[in-house]
Design brief:
Layout: H1 17-41, H2 47-59, H3 63-82, H4 84-107, H5 115-135, H6 143-154, H7 158-173, H8 179-199
Helix pairs in contact: 1-4, 1-5, 2-3, 2-7, 3-4, 3-6, 5-8, 6-7, 7-8
Length: 208
C-alpha cells in the first residue's frame, strides 16, 4: 500500500512571531557562518551572493555592503508577487547576513582550513540556513525570490532554478579566477542547492 503524501487530518498552524524570529535568526547565522568559510578560502558561490562576490573580490569592496545593495531591486518583485510579509522578512534577512558576514570574520579565524572541508561546510551550512529562512516565509532575496516564484507557479524546484543561474555565474567566473577556485566553488554550490532541492517541500510542512 503506497504511503500517503499528505496529512489530510492535520491542521495548519501559523508560526508565532517568536518562532519566526528564532527561525530567521538561526537561518541568517548559519548562512553567515558558511559565507565566512567561503570568503576565507577566496571561493565563490552562485545566486545573489555569487554576483556580490564577483563584484566585491576584484575591487576589494565589502561583500556585506555589495550584497545588501545588489538585493534592493529584487524587493519590488518580492512585494508584488509574494506579499508584504515575505518582503519585510527578506529585507531583514539580507540586512542581518550583510552585517554578520562583516563581523564573523573578525571572530572566526583559521590557522589552516582544508579547501574541500571548507567547501562542504559552506554548502551544508548555507543550505540549511536558507531552508530555515524559507520555512519562516523569508529569503535572502535575489535569485532566491525568483526560485520560489518559479516553484510556486510551475512546481519546478527552487534549488534547480538557482542551479541554472549558478551555472551562468560560474561561466563568467572562469574568465576571472583560476580553474581550481571555480571547481571548488561549483562543488559548494552543488551541495548547497542539493540540500535545498531535496528538503524544500511545502507539501511536507504542517505549519504554514
Amino acid at each position: 500500500m503506497p504511503a500517503p503524501t499528505r496529512f489530510p487530518d492535520a491542521k495548519t498552524v501559523d508560526h508565532t512571531p517568536l518562532e519566526d524570529i528564532q527561525g530567521l535568526t538561526v537561518g541568517c547565522f548559519l548562512t553567515s557562518v558558511g559565507l565566512t568559510f567561503l570568503t576565507h578560502l577566496g571561493f565563490l558561490t552562485g545566486q545573489t551572493a555569487g554576483l556580490a562576490l564577483l563584484i566585491a573580490y576584484p575591487n576589494g569592496w565589502s561583500f556585506g555592503l555589495v550584497f545588501f545593495l545588489i538585493n534592493i531591486p529584487f524587493y519590488a518583485l518580492a512585494y508584488m508577487r509574494l506579499g508584504r510579509e515575505f518582503t519585510l522578512k527578506s529585507v531583514a534577512c539580507v540586512t542581518a547576513v550583510s552585517v554578520m558576514s562583516e563581523i564573523l570574520p573578525q571572530v572566526i579565524m583559521f590557522d589552516r582550513l582544508d579547501p574541500l572541508i571548507g567547501t562542504l561546510v559552506f554548502g551544508v551550512s548555507v543550505g540549511l540556513g536558507l531552508l530555515a529562512c524559507f520555512r519562516h516565509k523569508g529569503s535572502l532575496g535575489g535569485v532566491g525570490v525568483i526560485g520560489l516564484l518559479v516553484q510556486d507557479q510551475t512546481g519546478f524546484k527552487a534549488g534547480y532554478v538557482q542551479l541554472l543561474v549558478d551555472a551562468a555565474i560560474f561561466a563568467v567566473a572562469l574568465f576571472m579566477f583560476p580553474s581550481s577556485v571555480v571547481a571548488y566553488s561549483l562543488l559548494g554550490a552543488v551541495v548547497l542547492n542539493g540540500v535545498i532541492a531535496f528538503n524544500h517541500r511545502r507539501d511536507r510542512y504542517i505549519a504554514s
